[in-house]
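Narrative of activities, Objective 1.

The group set out to show that a structural description can be obtained from nothing but a protein's sequence at a throughput compatible with the screening campaign. Below is one input-output pair from the validation batch, recorded exactly as produced.
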Amino acid sequence: MSAQTPERPTTQDAPLNPALHRQIDASHGTEFKGTDPMKTVSVQDPDEGRSWPMIWAVVAIICVALAVYYVVT
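Output recorded for this entry:
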C-alpha cells in the first residue's frame, strides 16, 4: 500500500486573505542615514544622584513611623 500525499494548493489555487500576502516594506532601508548614537551620549557627573539614597531612607523612615502610629492608635 503506497499512499501518495496530495500536493498542497498554491496561493493562486487557494487565495488567502489579501492582508496575509507577503509585502515588502520599502520605507526602511540601508540608504537612509541616522545619527551616531555615541554623539548624543551624556556622562553622569560623579556627584549627581548621590542624594537620592538618603531621600529614600528618610521617606521610608517616615512611612514606617506613620504605619506604627496608625497600628498603635
